[in-house]
Amino acid sequence: MTKPVGPARTLKLNYKRTFLIGFAFFGILLLWQVYDAWCPTFLTDIFARRMYNMSSAELKGADPDKLLNVQWIVGIIMACDNLAALILLPLFGTLSDKTRTPIGKRMPYILVGTFVAAFAFPFIPLFFHYNNIVGMVLMMAIVLIFMMMYRNPAVALMPDITPKPLRAKANGVINIMGYLGGAFGTVLGLFLVLSKYINAPDSERNLWTIELPFLIASVLMVISALVLYFTVKENEIAVEMKEDMALGETLAAVETPVNEGPMSKANKRMLLAILGAEFLWFMSDNAIGTYIGNYVIYYLNAASSSTSTLTIIGGAASVVGFATAGKIADKIGRKWTISTGLACTLCGLIVMCFVAPTGQVASDGVHVFPKLLFLVWMVKGFGMALVHNCSFPMVVELCSSEKIGRFTGYYYAASMSAQTITPILLGLVLNATLAWRALPIYAVILTTCSFCVFTSLVKNIKAGKVANTYGLEALGGDD
Question: Residue 303: which domain range?
Answer without folding.
Answer: 15-463
